[in-house]
Amino acid sequence: MLGHSPDPVRLSAPAGLKLDALRSTLSYTSARSSALIWEWTPFCLVASYFIFSTCIYMVCSDKMIEVFWYVYMLTNTYVSMVTVVEAVLSISATREARGRVTKIAANDFKPGTGPWPTADEQLPIIDLLIVAYLPNERDIIMDRVIYLCTKIVYPIDRIRINCVYNTPITIEPLETELVDLQDKYSQLRVIKVPGSKSKADNLNHFFTLNTGAGVIAIFDADHYPHPHNPRWAAERFMADADVGIVQGRCIIYNSRDSWLTRLIAIEFDKIYAVSHPGRAIMMDFGLFCGSNGYWRADLLKMHKMHGEMLTEDIDSALRAVKKNVKAVHEINAVSYELAPSEFQGFWKQRLRWAQGWAQASLVHMPMVWNKPEQGTRSFTKRFGVFSLLAVREVSYYLITQYTCLVLSFIILNFPKTPLAFARMIFFPYPLSVWFFVISIACLFATLVITWRVRSEFISVWMMICFSLFYPFYLVVMGMIGLYGHARQVVAYNNWNPTARK
C-alpha cells in the first residue's frame, strides 16, 4: 500500500520559521552593531585626534614646535585678558545691584519705596513656569511646586505658578496629587502636555494658551527661586520698556556634596555674577540662559522654542540676540539649583551642552557678518558674537593642542624632577615668563572679583582648590567640547536627562 505523499506546507513551515528567526536575529545583530558603532564613533574620533596630534608634535622640528607654542600662548593670553576685562566691567553692575539691595533692606522690603517703586496693583502679571520631565523629577517635583506656592513674595493675584510637565508613562499617585494641589493653592495650575517629548514641546504648548500674563518666567524643575526673585525681574521690566528679557543669577546650593560640585559652584558664580554681566557691558548684549529667565509674554510667544535644536535654550538666546532683543542680567534675581555630584552625570550634561553650542554656533554664526532683520548691529556686538561662538568653539582645540604638545615633550624627554617638569611646561622659551605672569595675573584678578560676589555656599578653601584645579578643569572642558563636535559630526541625538534628587 502506497503511503500518503508528504504535505509540502508541513515540511516548509519549520524551515520558514527558522528562516524568519534567522532574519530577526541578523536584523537585531545589525541594529545593535550599528548602534554600538554610532555610540563609540565620537570616542574613537577624539582618541584618534589626541594620538595623531601628539605624534605630529613628536616629529616636528624645534622651530615648528616653537611657532605652535607661541600661537597657543598668544591665544591663551587673549582669552585671559578678555575674561579679566569682563570681570572688571562686572564690578559696576555688582555695585549697583548691592546698592539696590541696601535701599530695599532699609525699607524693610516694602513695595512702593526705594528701588521698588512700583505699587503691587501695577506690577505685571507673571506666568512662572516650572518645566519637568516627570520620570526623572518625580522625587522633587512636589517639593518644588509647594515651595513656589508658599515662599514666593509677589502679589498672589498677579502671579501664576504653572507646573508644565510631560511623561511617557502614567505616574500615580503623583500626578493626581499634583492636580489636587490646585484646590489648595489658587495661583497653581498643573498642565500635562500630551504627546510631548521635550522641554521645547512643553513650552510651545503653554505658549498657545491665552493666560493674559505680561511676563513669562522659565525655571527647570530643580530650582528654588529666592522669594523676591520675581519682584526683582518685574521691576527691571517696569523700569525700562525696551527690556525684553531679564536673566537672573543661578547659584549652586549643593556645593558641599563632592569635589565636583565645589568646582561647578565656583564656576557658576564666575559665569552668572561676573562673566555674563561683564559681557553685557563690554559686548552690548545679554543672554537668556535657559532657566531663571523672564521674557515679555508676547515676545516669547512669537519667538517660541525650536524643538529640532539640541539645546533649544541656547538657540532661543541667540535668536533673541539676532533680533536685537534687549536682555539684561539682574544679579539680585537669584535662583538656587542642583549640580551633578558625580562625574558621570556631569559628563553627560556637559556633552549635551557642548554639542548644543556647536550646533547653535553653526546656525547663528552668520549674524557676525549678515545684516540684521531689524535695526542695526554694532561692530562691538558683532565682535562679541564672534568671540562667544567662534572663539569659544576654537578654544577647545587650542587647549587640547597645547595638552598634546606637552605630552609630546614628556614622551620625548621625560622630566626627572618637578622643577624640570614645570620648566618644560611653562618656561621653554624666552618669553615664557611674560606669558605665565600675564595669565596668572588675569586668573588671580578674575578669582578675586569672583570672590567678592561669591554665594553663601563658597568658602576660602573651595576657592583655593578651584585655583589649583582650574588648568586641569579647562583641559577636561576642552575634551568635552571636542567630544561634542564629534557627536555633531555623526549626528548623535541620544539624550539622557540630568538626574535629579
UniProtKB/TrEMBL annotation:
Keyword Transmembrane helix: yes
Gene Ontology MF terms in the entry: glycosyltransferase activity
Subcellular location: Membrane
Membrane spanning residue stretches: 40-60, 67-89, 394-414, 426-451, 457-483
Pfam family, one: Glyco_trans_2_3
One cellular component term from this protein's GO annotations in UniProt: membrane
Keyword Heme (UniProt): no
Main location: membrane
Domain of life according to the entry: Eukaryota
Record keywords: Glycosyltransferase, Membrane, Transferase, Transmembrane, Transmembrane helix
Membrane protein topology class: Multi-pass membrane protein
Glycosyltransferase 2-like domain mapped to chain residues: 216-444
Record's signal peptide: none
The protein, known as: N-acetylglucosaminyltransferas-like protein
